Amino acid sequence: MFDAKMPEAWRVLRIQSELVDGIEQLIKVRGAVTVFGSARTAPEHPHYKQAEQLGRLLAEAGIPVITGGGPGVMEAANKGAQEAGGESVGLNITLPMEQSPNPYQSISLTFRYFFVRKFMFVKHAVGFVIMPGGFGTLDELFEALTLVQTNKVAAFPIVLVNKAYWHGLLDWMRDTMLKEGNIGAPDMDMMQLVDTPEEAAEIIKAHVASIPAAEK
């Protein structure tokens, strides 16, 4: 969050402090999967249940789960991971509404700056799973696509769960962005579309199994 009263030099130090603290706190987290989705999803919603099952399946496979640390889909994935005895990481952000830390985290961090938080999402992840969500979820999806497309990170699975929710977006990307030449045909292959947490977990597990131990 921008603080107009803080001198620029001190703001740089605060950013540095967030980076250092985040790296130190997560230094032992390896081969994790970051799960994104709406903070507004209620516990009784099917998307919540799917995210909870996803977190459980990943934890049972020994794969740490990272979320944005808030309610909704984030809470569900953390809950599933924690209840299965896995590493459950929450990277919260200070916001004027919606965001408050959920109670299902073995590691909980709170960030002031979105870009530091985004760096942490990517640094420790070997895959992203995108559940239905809003602007923030789309921001994180397209950030991941851009990083992979530009080779700023090694290619990793970007799995979208719930075909009915995501089909319209992918159709628009294919029928408009691709048709206009603003992306290439291989760019569409960066995403995998599935309907169930079981399918998403299998894609992630297969990818993790293919990574040399020294790189995890």
TrEMBL record:
<dbReference type="InterPro" id="IPR052341">
    <property type="entry name" value="LOG_family_nucleotidases"/>
</dbReference>
<dbReference type="InterPro" id="IPR005269">
    <property type="entry name" value="LOG"/>
</dbReference>
<dbReference type="InterPro" id="IPR031100">
    <property type="entry name" value="LOG_fam"/>
</dbReference>
<keyword id="KW-0203">Cytokinin biosynthesis</keyword>
<dbReference type="GO" id="GO:0009691">
    <property type="term" value="P:cytokinin biosynthetic process"/>
</dbReference>
<protein>
    <recommendedName>
        <fullName>Cytokinin riboside 5'-monophosphate phosphoribohydrolase</fullName>
        <ecNumber>3.2.2.n1</ecNumber>
    </recommendedName>
</protein>
<dbReference type="GO" id="GO:0008714">
    <property type="term" value="F:AMP nucleosidase activity"/>
</dbReference>
<dbReference type="GO" id="GO:0005829">
    <property type="term" value="C:cytosol"/>
</dbReference>
<dbReference type="Pfam" id="PF03641">
    <property type="entry name" value="Lysine_decarbox"/>
</dbReference>
<comment type="similarity">
    <text>Belongs to the LOG family.</text>
</comment>
<keyword id="KW-0378">Hydrolase</keyword>
